[in-house]
Each structure stands twice: as C-alpha cells, then as structure tokens.
Specification:
The chain folds into two domains: 5-122, no CATH class; 132-328, Maf protein (Alpha-Beta Complex), CATH 3.90.950. α7 (303-309) packs across α8 (311-327). The chain has helices spanning 34-47, 70-85, 118-122, 140-150, 176-191, 225-235, 303-309, 311-327; strands at 6-9, 14-20, 24-27, 59-66, 89-94, 97-102, 105-110, 132-135, 156-159, 194-204, 246-256, 263-273, 289-291. The chain is an alpha+beta fold. It is an enzyme of class 3 (hydrolase).
Amino acid sequence: MTEKIYEYKDDNNWFIGKGSFANIFSSFGEGGREQEISQLGHQLDQLIAPRYEDEFNQCVAIEVIKLQSDVRLIQFALEILNDLNNRQFRAVHHKGTVLIIEGEKLYSVYLPKTGVSLTDFFGQSETGFGDTLLIATKNEGKTKEFRKFFEKMGITVENLNDYPDLPDVAETGMTFEENARLKAETIAKLTGKMVLADDSGLKVDVLGGLPGVWSARFSGPDATDEKNNAKLLHELQMVFELKDRSAQFHCCLVVASPDKESLVVEAEWPGYIGVQPQGENGFGYDPLFLVGESGRTAAQLSSDEKNEQSHRGLAVKKLMEVFPSWLNTR
C-alpha cells in the first residue's frame, strides 16, 4: 500500500507530513532553526501523544521546508492526526495561546515562549480563577493548617468566615464520617463550591471513646477549649497511671462537590492525656495531649512538626494521594 503523504504550502509556510511512530518535526529548508523546530515536535508529543497512546494508531512526522507560523504547523499536525486516527482535534486561538480542543473538551494549551498575561487570558485578575476549596469551619487555626497543604497545589482556601450568610449545619451524626459528610455535602449544595469538612475529636480509652464526636462541646452548650480541657481532667482525676490515660485524636476528612461522589479519608494520632496543660501552639485539647512517648504535648510542637504527624496531617497526606484523581472524576 502506498504511504499517504500530506502537504501544506502558502507564501510563508511549507510542510510535508506522513504517519509515524512518534510526533517528530525536522527541518529541511530552515537552516539554523533545526533545534527550535524539533522542540515544537517534542512539545506536540508531550501535549497530545501520551494522553492517547492507547487510542492512537499513528503519530505524525513532518518535514519543515519553510516556517513562519508555529500555530499553522501545529494545525497541520492535528489535521494529519485526525485523518490517521479518526479524531476531531482542532487548534483555537485564544489571547495569544493556542487551545487544543476536541468537541467540548480542552486537552492542552500551547503557549508562546514569552508566556501570556493571566488577566488577558482569563479576562479577570489572577485571583479570580483556579480551584477554590471552602473549608467548612470558622476556626482560623484549623484553616491555617489546611491552607499550608492546599496552597502548595495552587488551590485557594477559604472558610465559612468568608460566607457569613450561610446557615449553621447541625452535627447530628453519631460518627465522625456522618458529621463530616453532613457539613461538606450540605454546604457544597448551598454554595455550588468544592467543600472540605473534617470531623475531628479526641477518643480517651478509659472513657469508652469519649469525648469522641462531642469533643467540641464536651463541657456543654457554652463550651470553650479551657472548659473542655478542665472537664477532661476532672473525668480523669482518679486515673493516675499514664498508661491508663491512653487516647487518640481521630480525623475524618470529606471533600464534597455538587453532583459528585464525596471523597472520604480517616487517620488517627495515638498518645496520652497529661495531668496539666502545657504549650501555647495548639488549640482544642492540644495542651493536654501527650504525643506518643515523647513527653511533649501537641501544643508544644511547631506547626511543621504537628502537620507531619498529627491526625489531621496524616489524613491530609492520605487525601493528597487520592485528591488529584478525584478532581478529574465526574
């Protein structure tokens, strides 16, 4: 069978192409630009081929005789790929970039070497785009911990203080997961945003797992951190041996988004309950929670130390392992 040859020629561009095992551009007539043209082929290969290696029957090899427009070369390559593989890719100009699109899906963006202005590209300030994660809490300390993790992924973190008109969600669940789901899924429906809720609490073995899901309100309706800690010490006042004061911080994280299955992860942090508060860095029961066998309380750890080993830190690590793939599910 005769190999099919493709050609494009105008006053400023001249390309000849054929099917190949990889996307390769080489230069026949543009002396001194061989590396630049080869890089264009490599970029096309990076933009497209790896995503469709199980679907593409063929890639494309193009010999460049004359080149003025990188975009026209990419369009020519897409036309060949479409013909060879029965696809419908197209290159669309947008604010100095080229969007590689098929149907209603955007697959890749080709950028000029000089880059483009974010404001020009998105038509708004750079803070007005990108994924936003709403943390279902008004606790700034908790928000700060989550922000350290998610900002590394380029995700803007907000909390309920940014949405004062939202109603409170009653935590009526009997488990940490039930409460976290209630908060995340309810707020996601109300706001249309991606929402992360956690239900975290302290489980003390000798108290049968209390305060558990009632950790935040252990001392009653007007509970504060100080009142909760005082009640816990009161409950344990006749438990003298440290080994009998074993406990775990438990964290359940739920990420919810409208019309999407929620993501759930859980983790625990083992330790003991001390006999008096120590440390200034934490919140909640941190001043009483002795970390493992270290003799230090959670409130005596730096933020980095705490994030590395805490129940919330461990849960977030688990979350980070599955979060990117969850974002891409429908």
